[in-house]
Structures are given as structure tokens and as C-alpha cells.
Design a protein that fits this description.
88 residues; mainly alpha; 5 helices
Length: 88
């Protein structure tokens, strides 16, 4: 896991998960959603688009654009739509 993500998770963990005390700006929230969606797409389309990569490859914030490009290049219409959601 990347150090900035690990640091963020440690910070919110210290606050005990109390929602009212979390400091999550909208930009960070969008970035976290993009990473989550990219990981889901990698798992879902592994057989058709990412077959040459390990199944346990760790997808991080820097990999989101790569996942979207690979979905567009090697995928079907469903993969193309998923790539479009990642590129927003």
C-alpha cells in the first residue's frame, strides 16, 4: 500500500471511526472512489483485458489511468463504459 494511503488510513483510524471528526475533502474522496472502481474493474475484466498480469496486482492511485486505457484497448463495450467512469 502506498505511504500516503497508509498515512490517511492511520489518521482516520485514530479518530475511532467517528464520522463527524473525519476530515475528508471532496478531492480525496473522489480519488478513493476512482481507486476502488479501478480495482473492481481489474478483477472483473482480468480474463479479457489484464490476463498477462498477476491477479493479485496492487492497483493504486497512479494506476487508475493505466487501467482505463487497458480497458479501452482490450475490452468490450462493458469495459469501455467502465473506463469512461474511471476517466471522469
Amino acid at each position: 500500500m502506498e505511504s500516503d494511503i497508509r498515512r490517511y488510513l492511520a489518521e482516520i483510524g485514530r479518530k475511532g471511526g467517528r464520522k463527524s471528526r473525519r476530515s475528508l475533502d471532496p478531492e480525496m474522496a473522489r480519488a478513493m472512489v476512482r481507486v476502488r472502481e479501478a480495482r473492481r474493474a481489474f478483477r472483473e475484466f482480468h480474463a479479457t483485458c489484464f490476463w498477462s498480469y498477476r491477479k493479485d496486482l496492487e492497483i493504486g492511485p497512479a494506476d487508475v489511468d493505466w487501467v482505463a486505457e487497458t480497458l479501452k484497448k482490450n475490452g468490450d463495450m462493458r469495459a469501455w463504459r467502465m473506463a469512461g467512469r474511471l476517466c471522469r
